[in-house]
Amino acid sequence: MPHPIMFSDDDPILARLRTVALALPEATEKVAHGRPTFRCGKMFAMYGGGEKGSKVRRDTALLFIPEASEREALVQDPRFFVPAYVGAYGWLGIDLALDADWDEVGELLDASFRQVAPKRAIKVLEAG
Fold first, then answer.
1. Number of H helices, E strands in the chain
2. Residue 52 and residue 69: Cα distance in Å, rounded?
3. Whether the Cβ atoms of residue 62 and residue 94 lie closer than 8 Å to each other
4. Within a 10 A sphere around the Cβ of 68, how many other Cβ atoms?
5. Is the alpha carbon torsion for 14, 20, 26, 27 positive or negative?
6. Residue 103 to residues 22, 46, 107: CA-CA distances in angstroms?
7. Residue 20 Ramachandran class (φ > 0 left, ψ -120 to 50 alpha, else beta)
8. Where are the annotated coiled coils located (predicted)?
9. What is the CATH number of the domain that holds 74?
């Protein structure tokens, strides 16, 4: 039985996130577990999810893989949360409906992308 779809294609936050995420080299979008995910081979971002240890749904959140050196600082920032399921693997989330800084979102996506992308895609990214 497939998961129910938990997003709307006309969501303006998702539209903006798609623009940023799909601009990365070789990035693709695939719906998984009822939510949009962004991949370059492996998943580097997801739109929407729950908060670990609670029943709180954050349907407008970006889930991403932070740089290991920055994870602890991000966890201390109240805007960020540990998501259910993928949080155990180091992922974090930020709710984009709460006055998102889209330059910061781009940086978070870039860092997450670099965690999973093949070297050839990172070379394209660095070449500009």
1. 4, 6
2. 22
3. yes
4. 10
5. negative
6. 15, 18, 6
7. alpha
8. none
9. 3.90.1150.30
Is 2 part of a structural domain of the chain?
no
Instruction: Please check the confidence at residue 1 and state whether its pLDDT lies above 80.
Output: no
Distances (CA, A) of 102 to 16, 21, 31, 109: 9, 11, 23, 10
Contact 49, 3 (CB under 8 A): no
Q: Strand, coil or helix: what is 102?
A: helix
Percent of the chain whose pLDDT exceeds 90 = 92
Reported as a single tens digit per residue, the pLDDT across 4-57 is 999 999 999 999 999 999 999 999 999 999 999 999 999 999 999 999 989 889
The rounded Cα 62 to chain-centroid distance in angstroms is 4
Other beta carbons within 10 angstroms of residue 72's beta carbon come to 9
Query: What are 12's two structure tokens?
Result: 């303006």
Domains in the chain, number: 1
Give a yes or no: residue 54 inside a domain.
yes
Closest by CA to 30, choosing from 18, 19, 20, is 18
CA separation for the pair 98, 113 (Å, rounded): 23
